[in-house]
């Protein structure tokens, strides 16, 4: 009798937990998740309860963070049927509204040929936009493309300037930055290197 009652109590507890409403993410919360690449995991962890809300915020309200999230969900079939073409379209919409993470992801996809045809020059375009906004991940990827011979030599100074002034507490990223700075220096005129070492706010 006690066991049956305990099981019933447990079942009610689980049911109430399942029925608990999931709050829609604020723009700041969602952007933080996107920047940490935890946004898709969160949607799954929330048992796909917010799919309709996410779709509405992306398609009707056209909020860039939600356009990015909805695009990523469509591209990879997370809580919805996969539709890469629509997914890329929403990611591109988010990038056109200036969301750094969307610009970076579009650039990375074009650089690697993920879901789209590989196009290194188009990758440079997207990554440069995100890098100029201070998005470190894009700055690193852009530097790699420059070192690999893509992009314009006129852009090397900007890439060096951004990385030279980058701040990170990640030792591996710090070493990566130092490596790119050294490689970029070999491609630049000494005067350009001196100019690129100016403080960020100058």
Task: Output the keywords.
202 residues, mainly alpha, 12 helices, 0% strand, elongated
Q: What is the number of E strands? A: 0
The poorly predicted ranges are: 5-19
Bin the strand percentage. under 5%
Distance between the termini: 76 Å
The profile of the biggest β sheet is: none
Write a short abstract of this structure.
This protein is mainly alpha-helical and 202 residues long. 69% of the residues lie in helices and 0% in strands. The protein is elongated and about 60 Å long.
Give the helices and strands, then pairings:
Blueprint: H1 2-19, H2 27-35, H3 39-45, H4 51-59, H5 64-76, H6 84-96, H7 100-112, H8 120-132, H9 136-147, H10 156-164, H11 171-187, H12 190-196
Helix pairs in contact: 4-5, 5-6, 6-7, 7-8, 7-9, 8-9, 9-10, 9-11, 10-11, 10-12
Written overview of the protein:
This protein has 202 residues and is mainly α. The chain is 69% helix and 0% strand. The protein is built from 12 helices and no strands. It has helices at residues 2-19, 27-35, 39-45, 51-59, 64-76, 84-96, 100-112, 120-132, 136-147, 156-164, 171-187, 190-196. The longest helix is centred in the first third of the chain and has 18 residues, at 2-19. The protein is elongated and about 60 Å long. The N and C termini lie far apart (76 Å). The model is unreliable at 5-19 (pLDDT under 50).
């Amino acid at each position: 009798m006690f066991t049956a009652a305990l099981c019933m109590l447990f079942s009610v507890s689980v049911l109430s937990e399942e029925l608990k409403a999931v709050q829609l993410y604020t723009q700041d919360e969602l952007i933080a998740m996107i920047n940490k690449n935890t946004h898709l995991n969160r949607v799954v962890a929330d048992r796909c309860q917010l799919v309709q809300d996410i779709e509405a915020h992306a398609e009707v309200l056209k909020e860039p963070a939600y356009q990015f999230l909805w695009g990523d969900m469509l591209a990879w079939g997370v809580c919805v049927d996969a539709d890469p073409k629509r997914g890329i379209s929403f990611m591109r919409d988010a990038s056109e509204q200036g969301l750094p993470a969307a610009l970076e992801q579009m650039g990375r996809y074009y650089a690697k040929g993920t879901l789209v045809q590989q196009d290194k020059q188009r990758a440079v375009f997207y990554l440069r936009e995100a890098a100029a906004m201070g998005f470190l991940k894009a700055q690193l990827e852009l530097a790699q493309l420059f070192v690999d011979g893509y992009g314009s030599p006129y852009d090397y100074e900007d890439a060096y300037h951004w990385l030279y002034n980058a701040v990170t507490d990640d030792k591996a990223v710090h070493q990566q930055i130092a490596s790119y700075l050294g490689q970029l220096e070999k491609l630049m005129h000494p005067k350009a290197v001196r100019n690129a070492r100016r403080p960020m706010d100058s």
